[in-house]
Prior knowledge:
By secondary structure, chain A is an alpha+beta fold.
Amino acid sequence: MSPTIDRLTSERFDVDGYYELLDLLEARGLTDGLPVVPPTPELVAAFVEASGHEPDHSVGHMPPAMGNATVEKIAVNAVMAGCRPDYMPLLVDAVALLLDPRFKLVSVQTTTHPCTPMLLVHGPEAERLGINSGAGVFSPGHRANATIGRAIRLLLICVGGAVPGSGDRATQGTPAKYTYCVAENERESPWEPLRVAQGYAREDSVVTIAALEAPHNINDHGATSAEEILTTIAGAMAQSGANDLSLERPNPFLFLGPEHATLIADDGWSRADVQEFIWRKARVPRERISQGKRTWLHGVHLSLANRVELGLDRADAEAYPIVARPEQLTVVVLGGPGMHSSWGSSFAQLPSLSRRLGTPADVRTTG
Amino acid sequence: MVAVATDEFIQLARMISSASGLRDLRIAVIPHPLGGLKPAEARTRGVVVARAVLSALGMQEEETTGEPDH
């Protein structure tokens, strides 16, 4: 028997059967609504050992309930989610990033907005763990994507107290709260890997988190140039209801499909050119936003240093941008064949964060 | 110090204050919602909020309804 088992401190229950366990978890609000793998002491101990940490190592306290996110608790939820033990180091680092004060997890957890932490894993570790970056990247069918994202959600509920209707106050929420974990399609990206653009080394593995809505599809099968496809993309991103319009801390993500990305790059456009174009063109015309919301936006925009440059110095501006600066948009290539891309509108109250897996963490922010 | 929460969010406010070590934080509870109020409703609600805050501070009896004083 593993010596780690005797060091586990989580409450233990004797149950008569599997369905009694599910009923017990549901009664205690420790569920995402789906069946779980029973977190037996043997499995939890094996996951703790795979993490490389002691079971009582605390990564931090998770709001709003401020439960102690120990490695043991991470292991319990990883087991329940159906993870493999070798996902544990990534999960521990991802939880540490979620609890970085700059991410303001309490706001992400409790807001009425339907955002949820999106995990983007990039670099060699993403491939080693089998995180899908290709066809159907946001779809079911890949254990790593499904269970790593689910483990994060179970932790947010079971340790953080984000129970819908009490600790999680989303008005409608989003199915992305079940799981939201993807990898960059580095092989089919025409540009340098995102982590290299962020300043990390090519051999590094990096996890990025951002408080995003579920991806919104962008279909353009007819465009034949960078400017054409980006015109459609900018038009799709210019949404009257997007939180990004506040420009407080917008950090939306543009998830370019490989075919769209190649079309853009073949015209000689860089990632920075895409960011610049979207910043300039993804603007919502005044008449598509209510007077009341424009008044509210104007108050928020008064704090913007570049509001004159953006044309937002008047209460009735002509158009309202999705990002205040080009670099607030993250552009990454994901997915498989087909002329589709998508974008993730952001909560826009806090930056997205990236960190190198392992140590030193080297945390960097966007937005 | 007084926090303000609408009646829809008072449970969450108490969870956060308690988990943050502020079990005795005074919370002024006001009616939900705040968004979407018409200007006249907003003025009336402002009075309700002010009275709820004063009440939480122990400075005035709480009144849950009221007309603006202007």
